[in-house]
């Protein structure tokens, strides 16, 4: 059966959830599932905004045909071509052959790359920002938000009600449990961690582009944000805008320490535990410790983004850096991560490479400050080295105040 909700008069959510998918983009674990949002406007003209992933095609088609009833589909707006939203575009075009398809120049390039159906006769290419399409009571205008997080992306602003269809921006992992609105759920407890993990790992590299999009959209009166994943915002929108602002400026949300380590036999882990205990006794609260071989990097990256300080600890491996640690630091650098305080702990038995490598990788990122002398353990930490650990704990603690 169809499964839809009217989210505003004449505007319907026709999306769905996938709670079975193990990993988003075949990389990021989804313990709480994911939603694919899609919207229909029933005005004098009818509009479908984006489609959904292929995993929920059957339900989606049922939803769309139920809401449209016997009416034709007049417009299909493509805000984003990525297959988690674009998978059903060709199907919709075949189901409604008269539909006018709205997108950017790049949208249609990508459409041709993914599909074989020629839609050139029915394409409306938005060349100028702010171009409007009236559907009767509603007016849609289109704004380009390239690289948030693909080059073809635009967002659609419905003028009469101030509704922003924001593509992947303001999206989050986590399926919807019937409650479609952020004000109907305990967002901070149920979605915030997933929202941060979604932003940092999927959009994180494009902070500058997110900033330009935020600036561009700041002149619009926005009463509701309808993203392609996760809850819809209609209250306290500034709360989530503020999170996006922090994240895209690479500014920590919180003064605090996340510690993550690679450890083959527990000796490097032991150094991290000893340091964390000292920090806790000094009064540092809400610390996180992760084993890079155990926890998926997307979670660690999300917390690295949140906190002001990190402690990284790794042994040398094959005369290089232990590779799960290398993966995380490499990904941070790919994401353009910057502006944090870092303490480095290494370990080796006969050749010391890890400290050098970690230091070089951190120094390759912008505005990173190394706190304390890197401590390089030989095989296992000895009690006579405790003073060095105390010194590091002291410097980290002081740096939290700066
Ligand atoms: Fe996307
Ligand atoms: Fe998406």
Automatic annotation (TrEMBL):
One of its GO terms (molecular function) is electron transfer activity. Gene3D superfamilies: 3.40.50.360, Ribonuclease Z/Hydroxyacylglutathione hydrolase-like. SMART domains: Lactamase_B. It holds the Pfam family Flavodoxin_1. In the N-terminal section; belongs to the zinc metallo-hydrolase group 3 family. This is Anaerobic nitric oxide reductase flavorubredoxin NorV. Signal peptide: none annotated. Residues 257-397 form the Flavodoxin-like domain.
């Amino acid at each position: 059966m169809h499964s839809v909700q009217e989210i505003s008069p004449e505007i319907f959510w026709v999306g769905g959830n996938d709670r079975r998918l193990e990993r988003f983009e075949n990389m990021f674990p989804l313990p709480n599932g994911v939603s694919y949002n899609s919207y229909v406007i029933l005005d004098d003209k009818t509009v479908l905004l984006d489609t959904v992933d292929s995993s929920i095609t059957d339900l989606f088609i049922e939803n769309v045909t139920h809401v449209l009833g016997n009416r034709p589909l007049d417009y299909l707006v493509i805000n984003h071509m990525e297959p988690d939203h674009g998978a059903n575009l060709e199907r919709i075009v075949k189901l409604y052959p008269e539909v006018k398809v709205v997108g950017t120049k790049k949208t249609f390039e990508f459409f041709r790359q993914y599909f074989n159906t020629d839609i050139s006769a029915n394409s409306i290419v938005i060349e100028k920002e702010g171009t409007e399409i009236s559907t009767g009571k509603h007016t849609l205008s289109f704004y380009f938000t390239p690289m948030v997080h693909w080059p073809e992306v635009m967002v659609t602003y419905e003028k009469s009600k101030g509704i922003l269809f924001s593509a992947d921006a303001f999206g989050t992992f986590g399926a919807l449990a019937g409650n479609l609105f952020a004000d109907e759920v305990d967002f901070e407890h149920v979605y915030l961690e997933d929202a941060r993990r979604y932003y940092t790992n999927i959009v994180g590299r494009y902070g500058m582009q997110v900033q330009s999009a935020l600036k561009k959209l700041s002149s619009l009166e926005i009463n509701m944000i309808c993203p392609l994943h996760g809850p819809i915002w209609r209250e306290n929108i500034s709360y989530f805008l503020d999170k996006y602002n922090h994240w895209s400026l690479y500014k920590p949300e919180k003064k605090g320490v996340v510690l993550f380590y690679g450890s083959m036999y527990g000796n490097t882990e032991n150094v991290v535990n000893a340091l964390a205990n000292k920090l806790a006794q000094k009064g540092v609260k809400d610390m996180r410790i992760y084993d890079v071989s155990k926890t998926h990097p997307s979670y660690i990256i999300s917390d690295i983004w949140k906190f002001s300080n990190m402690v990284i600890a790794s042994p040398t491996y094959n005369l290089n850096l232990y590779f799960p640690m290398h993966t995380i630091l490499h990904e941070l650098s790919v994401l353009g991560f910057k502006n944090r305080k870092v303490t480095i702990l290494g370990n080796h038995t006969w050749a010391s490479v890890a400290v050098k490598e970690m230091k070089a990788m951190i120094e390759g990122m912008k505005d990173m400050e190394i706190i304390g002398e890197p401590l390089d353990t030989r095989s296992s930490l000895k009690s006579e080295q405790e003073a060095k650990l105390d010194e590091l704990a002291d410097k980290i603690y002081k740096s939290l105040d700066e």
